Amino acid sequence: MERALTISELSKAYDKEPVLKSLDLEVPAGTIFGLIGPNGAGKSTLIGILTGLLDYSEGTITINGFEYTSSNEMKIKKSVASVLQPPLLFENFTSYEFVTYVCEMYRIDSSGLADKINSLFSYFEIEEFAHVKSKQLSSGSRKKLAFCAAILTNPKLLFLDEPFESVDVISIGRMKSILRKLKEKGTTIFITSHILEVVENLCDDIAILHKGQILAYLDAKSRRELEKDASLSEIFERYVDVKSVKDDLLNWL
Ligand SMILES: Nc1ncnc2c1ncn2[C@@H]1O[C@H](COP(=O)(O)OP(=O)(O)OP(=O)(O)O)[C@@H](O)[C@H]1O
Q1: How far is the CA of 41 from the centre of ligand 1 (A)?
Q2: Does residue 20 have its Cβ closer than 6 Å to ligand 1?
């Protein structure tokens, strides 16, 4: 099967403190892939590296067929979009200016673009903020705006770091519906989350990241097998050594 992303022996440290430890991962093209892991597992660090915002000490990364090297960087960036946590916006741009600027950077055909932007803003009920500066938006609206900009660039691979955090349930449903449509069109979607329910019914393959290492890779077949008698959260607990806490710890409450 074609791979949208191949990572081998990737290592990253902050101030000599290892965060990603010789990590290997392959993501099949045209699927919705979920990377789950507890707080501090290294999910955002990995997305930061994959989107070119953070450097790394060792390893190789291949995205959409191109190995991540300085000579391939622009080719890769053109085919990739991301929604980070927190989302990166231009604070003094209005919502409309932000998405049009992003589309210009990606050299997206401007014909019909205004209609697409307006329909997306209406779909996510942020049309009233079209001419409001990003810095004045609520955190949910910021997330939705970053999402709109990312999908307008027609990425082959879309990175979403905690995409549903701060977003209301109605909009989460709408985002998921767009993601399923994008998958049908062949886009690969890479989602990180620490909320298992979010990825459970959306993602195809799921990998569990813990302390900078992939503890388990659950493809559709192994998920079907495991999920026969356990929820994803029970499976997660089997892999991640969840520390038990004493019941009486909070007796003072
Ligand atoms: N800029 C930084 N400098 C030093 N340490 C950092 C930095 N950013 C993250 N870390 C540390 O790296 C580890 C991984 O953090 P990261 O944010 O990648 O995890 P995460 O899985 O995304 O967590 P969460 O689910 O809480 O967002 C944590 O121990 C964190 O404290």
Answers
A1: 7
A2: no
Which tokens hold the place of 109? Answer: 């055909």
Here the ipTM equals 0.98
Residue that the structure tokens 């990241």 belong to: 209
Of 3.40.50.11540, 3.90.230.10, 3.30.565.10, 3.40.50.300, the CATH number of 79-191 is: 3.40.50.300
Tokens 């709109």: give the residue.
148
- Per-residue pLDDT of the chain (253 residues), as tens digits, is 799 999 999 999 999 999 999 999 999 999 999 999 988 999 999 999 999 999 999 999 999 999 999 999 999 999 999 999 999 999 999 999 999 999 999 999 999 999 999 999 999 999 999 999 999 999 999 999 999 999 999 999 999 999 999 999 999 999 999 999 999 999 999 999 877 887 888 999 999 999 999 999 999 888 888 888 888 888 888 888 767 677 778 888 8
Is ligand 1 within 6 A of the CB of residue 211?
A: no
Give the integer Cα–Cα distance in Å for 225 and 41: 26
Stretch (H or E) spanning 192? strand 188-193
Best of 45, 55, 82, 215 to mutate for ligand 1, by most ligand atoms within 8 A of CB? 45
Distance 212 CA to ligand 1 centre (A): 10
- The ranges assigned to domains in the chain are 1-53+205-241, 79-191
In angstroms, the CA 223 to CA 170 distance is: 27
Cα 19 to averaged position of ligand 1 atoms, centre (Å): 8
Tokens, residue 214: 């992939």
Calculate how far, in angstroms, residue 12's C-alpha sits from the geometric centre of ligand 1. Answer: 11
